[in-house]
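Task 17 of the worksheet. Students: predict the tertiary structure of the chain below and write it out as structure tokens. Keep your answer in the requested format; marks are given for formatting as well as content.
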Amino acid sequence: YASSYASSVLSSAGSALAAMVLIFFFTLLMLIEAPNWRAKVCAVVDPDQRSGVFESLDVIARQLRRYLLIRVVLGLLTAGLYAAWLWFFGVELLLVWAILAFLLNFVPTLGSLVAGALPVVHVYVQQDFRTAVIVGIGILVIEQIMGNYVDPRVQGKQLSVSPLVILLVLLVWGWVWGVAGALLAVPVTIGIIVTCAHLPRLRPVALFLSDETSMDDLDDIVSAK
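Model answer:
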């Protein structure tokens, strides 16, 4: 049973790494083609409207860059804390748990739950119930500190997505594109929200997708520098 469990864990880690590689090349292609898309916008948008369009695109890019940078930094910090805590108890597959903690950091709420539960189950299978409980308590403390103290103070006033929308987009993107889809779901949704917020006819869509309750709050966040 333990051997089968280890194989399934390694398989999951392999899928996560494959998703990371896919996302890397996806991002690389987006960066390479960015100048072409700017030229295309110039070709189809009236000259007197270009400044407004480019301003909106700059805001979208800034929001996404900030979101991804913060998630990368917090993900690395969380992964390091996970690895240090698990190493203290002699838990195997430290690199696997650290990578999963980093990747699942991009999936709000559900990601931290899965990232914390998997190593606890592993400890229970490989060692004993008492050690698993202690490890679980430590991981819970890490998640509470990161989620309730560090994360809000680092991110500040930033666009947030409705928890219900997060669950729905995770289900849809995960079904369409597997692990890579689940990891890209929230960044893509944030891009959609910011885009809709800058289009008068689609502003209600942005409000419903976000976790804000008024247009003024939404405007303050999507226009924040």
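Marker's comment: Residues 2-44 form the longest helix (43 residues). The CA atoms of residues 96 and 206 lie 37 Å apart.
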